[in-house]
């Protein structure tokens, strides 16, 4: 292990080649945690494509194990959510048994975050439309949450990063206000550039927000036995709950 990775090395498997979330993730990580990124290369963002990429993910897991990382983090919620809550658990258990390395997926970190925040009823927002949002809702319902809504914003899969954070704020706020009683907001996907609205949403709506980027920083710190709060991106990471 190099000196610059004295707190551990995480291997991340990015679902797409688009820039943005990897840079955000690395900036939020404490100094001393090394990152080795690999890419699956999802392009269409369809349910069929998500269902067909597990072999590609496993190949990347094997590659990271060869590089002797301390933790493997397969990113991308949809590819694992379409496997179902129990299906995802079986896949991860089999990989850990085979490769002898801790593995945590993006959805797993998000379920852990919602539990840490003591959330029971959630409103979710996504950049998908149609029946796949029902798949996402079912995943969280099977994980023990009441999903009051999972509302998508109509945007092309390859254009998500062009949405302004103000547009994402408006979509999220409107979805939350349409469903009274939710005690947390869940934002699916790292494709949109929306870190700057997390604190604003929490301040305005008075509920915690689970956004995938701060959530993975929180989860990876926890697994590497690091505890370094980062303010400005929601109470989960600010207080290292």
The helical percent reads: 40-55%
Strand arrangement, major sheet: 5-4-6-7
- Rg, please? 17 Å
Count of individual helical segments: 11
Structure description:
By secondary structure, the protein is of the alpha/beta class. It is about 45% helix and about 15% strand. The chain has helices at about 20-30, 45-50, 55-65, 75-80, 85-100, 105-115, 130-140, 165-175, 200-205, 210-225, 235-240; strands at about 10-15, 35-40, 70-75, 120-125, 145-150, 185, 210. The strands form two sheets. A four-stranded parallel beta sheet has the order 5-4-6-7, with helices on both faces. Helix 1 (about 20-30) crosses helix 10 and helix 6 (about 105-115) crosses helix 10. It is globular. The mean pLDDT is about 95.
SSE topology:
Layout: E1 8-14, H1 21-28, E2 33-39, H2 47-51, H3 54-66, E3 71-74, H4 77-81, H5 85-99, H6 106-116, E4 121-126, H7 132-142, E5 146-152, H8 165-177, E6 184-187, H9 198-205, E7 209-210, H10 212-223, H11 235-239
Parallel strand pairs: 1-2, 1-3, 4-5, 4-6, 6-7
Helix pairs in contact: 1-10, 6-10
Summed up, what is this model?
The protein is of the alpha/beta class. The protein is built from eleven helices and seven strands. The strands form two sheets. It has a four-stranded parallel beta sheet, with helices on both faces. The chain has a three-stranded parallel beta sheet with strand order 2-1-3, covered by helices on one side.
Defining key terms:
three-stranded parallel β-sheet, alpha/beta, 241 residues, globular, 44% helix, four-stranded parallel β-sheet
